[in-house]
Amino acid sequence: MKRYVMAGLVLAVLTTVVVGTSLLGAEGAPVVLLGAALGGALGLVPDGSVAARAGGFVAGALLAWIGYVLRAAALPDSAAGRAVAALVVLGIGVVVVAAARGRVPAWSPLLGVAAVAGAYERVYAADPSAVASTSVETVTSVLLAAAVGLLATAFLAPASGAARAAGRTATSRGAHADDTATPVRGVPVVGPRDEGTSTAHPVFSSPAPQAAAAHPSSHPQPEA
Question: Any idea what DSSP says for residue 130?
């Protein structure tokens, strides 16, 4: 819990600095909070590596951007056109996740799509013909804000489930090795012996039977 609190405080401070100093320019100011919040979630969720999460996020953002370009160039500005664009974007996102074979979390491309859609839908609706210029500014700003959020939280977030499992396995193996080498009540633990080379204790071993020696008979043999 402490790591989450620290990551949240760092994220809040960095977002305030970016907004207060207009670091991303006047065009990027409206999307700073959206991008930083989504980037913070991207860094805090312990699912896969940070690089895989970031790659999925960028792939989803690029797919959403392509969807807006497709809407402006080839699709009607109607509910049917928006539905086709959504199908294309989400369908290609599923293909990307499947091609990654589990290396990219399925939710990270969706987060990238949500970032671009939330930041650019209003701008696109105001002037669809200016998609070539306005989309570049908006998508770049939201990706930079997301990068700020990711950097603010990625190094303070808890380890992923795979890393925790690997750590627990290593710890349990070390503890097991210590247990096998630790004496129990003063008696050292001895490893298993090979049955082929084991020897019995002389106290409990029975002597090998010896052949009875031939003694001369004390009874005289009758003469023929």
Answer: G
User: Does residue 179 lie in a domain region?
Assistant: no
Per-residue pLDDT tens listing for the chain (224 residues): 787 788 788 888 888 888 887 777 766 778 888 999 999 999 888 888 899 999 999 999 999 999 999 999 999 888 999 999 999 999 999 999 999 988 999 999 999 999 999 999 999 999 998 998 899 989 999 999 999 899 888 887 666 554 444 445 544 555 444 555 555 455 555 555 544 444 444 444 455 555 444 444 555 555 54
User: What's the CA gap between 146 and 31, in Å, rounded?
Assistant: 10
Q: What's the pTM value of the predicted model, to 2 decimals?
A: 0.67
Residue range(s) defining the domain that contains residue 78: 2-19+27-160
145 within some domain: yes
Please state the domain count of the chain: 1
Per the DSSP assignment, residues forming a β-bridge with 184 are 187
- How many CA atoms lie within 13 Å of 100's alpha carbon, on the beta-carbon side? 20
Does residue 49 form part of some domain? yes
